[in-house]
């Protein structure tokens, strides 16, 4: 029962760590940002999983239904999705700007150019 | 029981997609994997009763994010250079963090447990009182637009700031290499 009850959280942690691994191990800046997005989407799944109630319904009120899943995580994650895409756009714009200045988006090459100055 | 099986299946697909995205070196394929990943996440949200989140994720996560990534890849180049560093240290850090987080889940309420603390306190108040106070049947909408209207205004400030930042970085200067632009102009 423990495994079935915690399966969602464990897969979410696996996804989180996959994104985290890309962020810290990949040298390519675009791939780092994609890793950050994978991490972020896994946090969304964690929150929505916590809000789910067995036998609950979609939180749109109707006659004769008394059990609804928790709407508060939904509101929080709606905001987080939109903020997430804004930060992604800003990060990718920085990557484009770095590419113009250094002619590369690989961390190693950027560091080499900085050191040779 | 059907919902639980679909849930397990979708989470397994998510894990496969994420790991495929790590292993691929072609950034175009990585961006496509991310699009699939977001779409699977949106399907998960429908299953977990979060329909509003699902269509936002389908529009923003699958649509806008993937388009932004493809636009950037078009500008900066498609292939990732092979890594020269050892991946042992990142792997150790990731496994240690993951193990700590899994240890942290062991005393969490089980998935879907109706007696979990999260279902006991604030949410029932919104569900019982929001129809009288706002007249909107969709509780998510009434919280987002009525009770937490100022938070949504703050969110708009964040989007505006990000937009100004992107324009400042890319939009307001003359480009050195006119041949390189194409997307996002």
Question: What topology emerges from the helices and strands here?
Answer:
The complex is a heterodimer of chains A (117) and B (185).
Chain A: H1 2-25, H2 29-51, H3 71-102, H4 107-115
Chain B: H1 2-23, H2 27-47, H3 51-76, H4 88-105, H5 122-134, H6 139-147, H7 149-171
Q: What would the principal axes of the Cα set say about the shape of chain B?
A: globular
Q: Per CATH, which architecture of chain A?
A: Orthogonal Bundle
Count of extended strands of chain A: 0
| Main interface: chain pair and counts | A-B, 85 and 95 residues
Anisotropy-based shape of chain A = elongated
Which CATH architecture of the largest domain in chain B would you pick? Up-down Bundle
C-alpha end-to-end distance of chain A:
60 Å
Q: Rg of chain A, please?
A: 20 Å
Structural class of chain B: mainly alpha
User: Major β-sheet of chain B, in short?
Assistant: none
Secondary-structure element pattern of chain B, one letter each: HHHHHHH
CATH domain class of the largest domain in chain B: Mainly Alpha
Secondary-structure element series of chain A: HHHH
Structure description:
- The complex is a heterodimer of chains A (about 120) and B (about 180).
- Chain A is mainly α and about 120 residues long.
- Chain A has one domain (about 1-55, about 70-115): Orthogonal Bundle (Helix Hairpins).
- Chain A has helices spanning about 1-25, 30-50, 70-100, 105-115.
- Chain A is elongated and about 70 Å long.
- Chain B has about 180 residues and is mainly alpha-helical.
- Chain B folds into 2 domains: about 1-80, NADH-ubiquinone/plastoquinone oxidoreductase chain 6, subunit NuoJ (Four Helix Bundle (Hemerythrin (Met), subunit A)), CATH 1.20.120.1200; about 120-175, no CATH class.
- Chain B contains 7 helices and no strands.
- Chain B has helices spanning about 1-25, 25-45, 50-75, 90-105, 120-135, 140-145, 150-170.
- In chain B, α1 (about 1-25) runs antiparallel to α2 (about 25-45) and α2 (about 25-45) runs antiparallel to α3 (about 50-75).
- Chain B is globular, with a radius of gyration of 22 Å.
- The relative contact order of chain B is 0.07.
- The interface between A and B is large, with 85 and 95 residues.
